[in-house]
Amino acid sequence: MSLSDQELKHLARLARIHVEENELNALKDQLGRVFKLIDALQAVDTKGIEPLSHSLSLSQPLREDKVTEIDSRESYQAIAPQVEKGLYIVPKVIE
Amino acid sequence: MQWEVVIGLETHTQLATRSKIFSGSSTAFGAEPNTQASAIDIALPGVLPVLNKQAVECAIRFGLAVGADINRYSIFARKNYFYPDLPKGYQISQYEEPVVKGGAIHFSLNEQDYQVRLTRAHLEEDAGKSLHEEIPGATGIDLNRAGTPLLEIVSEPDMRSAEEAVAYAKALHQIVTWIGICDGNMQEGSFRCDANVSVRPVGSKTFGTRCEIKNLNSFRFLERAILFEVERQIEILENGGSIVQETRLYDPDRDETRSMRSKEDAMDYRYFPDPDLLPVVIDEQWINEVKEKMPPLPLVLKERFITEYGLTEYDANLITSERALTDYFIALTQSAKASAKLCANWLTGEVMAALNRTQLNIKECPIQPQQLVDLVARIEDQTISGKIAKTVFEVLWQEGGDVDSVIEARGLKQVSDSSAIEKIVDELMASNPDQVAEFRAGKDKVLGFFVGKAMKVSGGKLNPTQLNDVLRKKLAG
Amino acid sequence: MDISSLSVKKIKQLIDSKALSAFELAGLYLQRIEKLNPELNAFITVDADKTLAQAKQLDQAIWQGESRPLMGVPLAHKDIFCAKGWLTTCGSKMLANFVAPYDAHVVEAFNRSGTITLGKTNMDEFAMGSSNETSYFGAVKNPWNLGKVPGGSSGGSAAAVAARLAPLATATDTGGSIRQPAALCGVSGLKPTYGNVSRYGMIAYASSLDQGGLMAVSAEDIAYGMNSLVGHDERDSTSVKRAEEDFTSQLNNPLKGLRIGLPEEFFKEGVDTDVAQAVEQAIQELEKLGAVRVPLKLPNTSLSVPVYYVLAPAEASSNLSRFDGVRYGHRTKDYRNLIELYEKTRAEGFGAEVKRRILTGTYVLSRGYYDAYYLQAQRVRRLILQDYLNAFEHCDVILGPSTPSVAFGFNEKTSDPVSMYLSDIFTISVNLAGLPGLSIPVGFGREHLPVGLQLIGPHFAEAKLLNVAHQYQLVSDWHQQLPAGIAQV
Fold this sequence. Notes:
Oligomer: heterotrimer
Radius of gyration of chain C: 21 Å
Shape of chain B: elongated
Helix content of chain B: 40-55%
Number of helices of chain B: 15
Low-confidence stretches of chain C: none
Distance between the termini of chain B: 76 Å
Strand content of chain B: 15-25%
Number of domains of chain B: 3
CATH topology of the domain at 3-259 and 463-487 in chain C: Amidase signature (AS) enzymes
Strand content of chain C: 5-15%
Helix content of chain C: 25-40%
Mean pLDDT of chain B: 92
Shape of chain C: globular
């Protein structure tokens, strides 16, 4: 299947990736090829087959409820684009 | 037209674990911003989540407490959306296989019993906090809360009024605090409700379009928000309009709900199983271990208190409204020295009144259960009267000490020696001949006059029953 | 001293006998990197001061009598592994300035074993690519022919080992990212069983497929490295708990009676004749060593590429959401509000292939498509795993070409992403099934470019694969050959 401009823009919005108008056609073409590739799956009969998330059938290990972390704010915020008063700063969010 | 209100609640309870659900950061409230945000909590590249056992155990406890099914095999999924307080760009939650399925919450309201069915309860991580006032013109992000374990408890749309919704929320609050999985502190956001509200014409079988009101962190706001929302929806419908399904925010300052525009663009969370986490397997043995550690539940205790000790429904409800209060009461009943019923009266009466007066909670009560039992026992064996007991209670509250020593030291012991009582009565009758005559002429009320006088003379220490007997006998002539 | 012939084993001997100090050895490798890297572009970051400081420290430990399994062995880390204090870019503009504040498990494990970090190797951006052309830092060149790609995504590690800029290199493999570049650069490369190597600190591409591994000249050297690399790590929930294993212990087992499974799907049309011939000759060598051929089928092989291109982008679209310009990494300069901050940061920070995969993943997970794509792909994934499990009832290892062709030219496959995707046809199913896979050089094809042979084993059969490869390498010298231009340095 191929995407319309509208659908591609919606996807790009969901993924928070800005796409310029002049990129749309090339991107639609490339994604169209990928979608064609993966569409091959539709023809496979998988009735009764359970989906497989992990190759090994193991269960989730559990951690004891202990505080093991120390305050590392300084080193983590040293690589942050913008911080103030210990907070990560973003443009004003209006709810 | 007559409208029926339909409400379902989604409640986020912060679980009382020491560390976060997927990292070893502390969950303590009130730390400096981002000082409890580890590499995992701020989603540095390459970090991975590891599940906190205690969080799962809390969920099992809850499931057992509400008679739900514990899913033997539950799955964590990613809920994908972008928000600055969601560092990974997805929230780890449970979607198709939650840890708890079904169950119900029971409560009574206006003398009527209600049951609200639960759809599910699932584990997830809390987001951080967006602070809009700290930095002028910008939003500041504090990720200390990010990764705090939550149990999201989803009810069926079984409630039909704001009052019911609040009663449900209170009952739920009671359970989660009772079984110790949540501190219940609503001001700190430990217990937050989202309300799904819709209305429909009475008799209609289909649901109306619902709106979700987010983040109601007090019972009062929950009630106010629902009342406002119901009114808003009815007004729209009666004016021929239709309800738009949306998320709304309650503004307590204006006492109204309003649309959250920022979340309006058609949300598509793209849930899928989190490949960093494996299926959580909960076996029978684990469930049994949790079961053994569970405290008896309030409803069970309430029934037991009524049938076993003859408590009134009111007292039983009051005592089981809080775990610590129940613990106190159970401590009272543990020694057979005093009757549970009279102990309950003292607990719900004197003790609670004193606590209210002094703004203390039961855990801070200066009178220990053993002291109260001793006190009640002394009333029952007639060492002191109920009235004198109040004096002793005051002393115990203020100064502490042993009940018998207080009675002894202050000479509060009741006079049960009949010759002593007779002597006082004789003297009173001699000095009040008019009143004696009145009684004998049929004025029964005069008895009270003599009781009062006798008590005054003795400092209230005469055994009241005995005094009565003696007075009646002597006055009758 | 000519370091181009040094093996890990030899280095261990030199250091242990104090014939050479770690400092001297590190210096020699750094010189070679300085000479050759400008042309090959195999490293994104080299920091001689850091490397030499680490070597000095190790020398002190050595003089104090301390002994560790890989004491003084120089090592290159793929730039996907966080290494404390090192720039860790993942081949992306998004992380072009990201100095990792912590060590990945793999980095920590090797540090503990006494290795010296030579630098961080180049790679396709976020490990998404098969030619290294998606790296923000420019493509790596194939040491055998500078006009050819080294493969990807671990092209930097492969080229570094091929040019003897490092005796051992870490790498990762999500759909062939170790085995394909190892094949194209003529080195040995092992992708371990999923769960054997902790993913902690390895920047995630597709979490259910990603696995760290190693490249070296020989299988024997990889075996030494594996002893440090493998081990349970409680910070990764998918890390398996197994008894400690010595991966060198089976190296010398004879191959008599070894059943080699040859899936007909790996030898069909699409495989170039030069590749097919080299592989056939290698099979005959193995037969001389006592191995027997077992013809078999892996009927769902052709579906592995579409399954992969649903599952990997889906996981990637979510894994890469954390790169939002808020807490670290690139942030656009030009934004008026939050949504612009996000959208421009990500549009600028990610390259074209990464964006394509994020958009593909977003699409297959989105409402209305999830069942048809994602769940269906997971079901077919089970069929693919089942094919392998069935096959291993009849054979000990499975063998085939690592890639359908030898190294291709730059820009040959960049215009059509799908043609690039198909170059991983033989490696992808191994990741989907979580199996160990090893590529070793078995000769040369057209333009004297290396041909790789892939050995696939049942879960946790790495030692067996290394055994087969080592026995083959004892009777062949393809792995020891040096690219012509490089040999003279």
